[in-house]
Amino acid sequence: MNTADALIYVVDDDASVRESVVGLLESAGLQALGLASASEFLAYARPALPGCLVLDVQLPEVSGLELQRKLNALQDALPIIFISGRGDVRTSVTAIKAGAVDFFTKPLDANGLLAAIQRAIGSNDVLPVDMPTAARPHPAPVSGIIGASAPLRAVFRQVEAVAKTEATVLIQGETGTGKERLARRVHELSDRARGPFVTLNCAAIPVTLLESELMGHERGAFTGATGQRIGRFELAEHGTLFLDEIGELPLEVQPKLLRLLQEREFERLGGTRTMRADVRVVAATNRDLKAMVAQGTFREDLYYRLNVFPIVVPPLRERSQDIPLLARHFLEQMGGRMRKDIGPLSALSLERLLEHRWPGNIRELQNVLERAVILADGGSIDVPRLATNAPAPSVPRAEALDEVSKAHILRILKETNWVIAGPRGAAAKLDMKRTTLNFRMKKLGIARLAPDPAE
After folding, report:
1. Residue 399's closest CA among 346, 323, 313, 321?
2. Greatest mean pLDDT among 49-63, 187-201, 214-228
C-alpha cells in the first residue's frame, strides 16, 4: 500500500483541535479528513485504503470508547490513536489495553502525534524491500532505524539483550540520532509490549507543570486544577515510560523521580494516598549527565539509578556506510508523498552526502534531501555542497568514502544486471560517463563474478 494515499480520520468535536490536526497531517503530505462525531465517522463510506483514526475520548452522543467497541465488534482493524483533554484518563488506559495503538493528552505534542500516525499507517518501513539479505542488520531492524553498519548493529544487539529484562535503560546520543525509536523498540521486544508506551518530554513542559504531568494531581491541588489528572507514570502501568530529554529535568523534581524509580511509589499533587505503579523506565538525553553531576545540576544518585544499562547511539558521521540506505529510503518516501517521479542521487550528490559531518544527524539528512526533492525537476537528484562544521569522523575519510562508494556502485550494477552502457545502464543511473564508471570500478576492485552454477 502507498501510505501517501491512506486517509487519516480525525474525529473531535472541538473544531480548533480537529482543524489543527488535519493541518498538521496535510503539511506532512498525508491525506486527512476531519469529522465532528462518531456518528459522522460511522456514516462515512470508507475507501479501500484506510489509514488510521485519531479519536477524541469524550465525544457527544457516542463516545470515543463506544466507537472503539463498535469497531472491535465489527472486527475493523483500523488503528486508533486516542486523544483526551480531561484529567481522568483511566478509561483511555483501558482503551489502549483493548487495542488502541497510542494515547495523547491535550495540548497535543505535534511531533509525537505525527510520528505515531506514521507508525500506525506503516510509512516508516525500516529497509527497502529489495535490500540484499546479507546487508540486513542483526538482530531484526529496529523500528524506523535504517542501517547495516557495524556501529548500528552493535546498538541493535544491546537493545535485544536488555529488552527482556526489567533494567532501567539510559539512551545517550546527539540530537537526531533516533533515541525515541530505540526506546520504543526496547518496549516492543519486552514482556511489557502489550502494555502502553507513554512518553514525557522533560524539555517541552513548563517546570510548574512537570510534576503534575509525571505524577498527576487531584482536583483543587492548585489554581486551575478543575479535575483529577492521571500522571504519565500511572498511565504507563504494566508498560514503559519514556522520559525524553532527561537532562532538562529540574533539580527540584529529581528527588521525586528518584523515589519513583526506587520504590515505584508516588502521591498525586494535592493527594494524601500513596500509590504504586508497575512501570519500566527508559530515559534519553543528548547531554553529558556525568558532567552535569560534577557541575551540581544533576543528582548523582539519580544518574546512577538511570544509568543501569547505558546505550550510546552513534552519530551519522560514525556510520557513513548507512547514508546510501537512508537516502534511498527518504527519497522513496518523499517521492510518494509529493507525488513526484524521483530519480536516483547523482554521483556528486552522494559524494557530498558522504563528505558532510552531519551535526544534525538523520534529521538533518532528511531535511537536506527534502529540499533537494522539492527543487528536482526530473532526472537525478542534486544536492548542493553542504557546510562542514562538526567533529571529524572516527574513520579515515578516504577509506570510508571508498567503502560506501563501492557498495553503492555494486547495488546499481546488480539492479541493471551489470549493464553499464545505454539509457538504462548503470552509468546513466549513476550520472557518470561509461569510461568514468569503468575507471571507478577498476580503482575500487569491482569485477563481476561468474554465475553460481547452483543458482
Report:
1. 321
2. 187-201
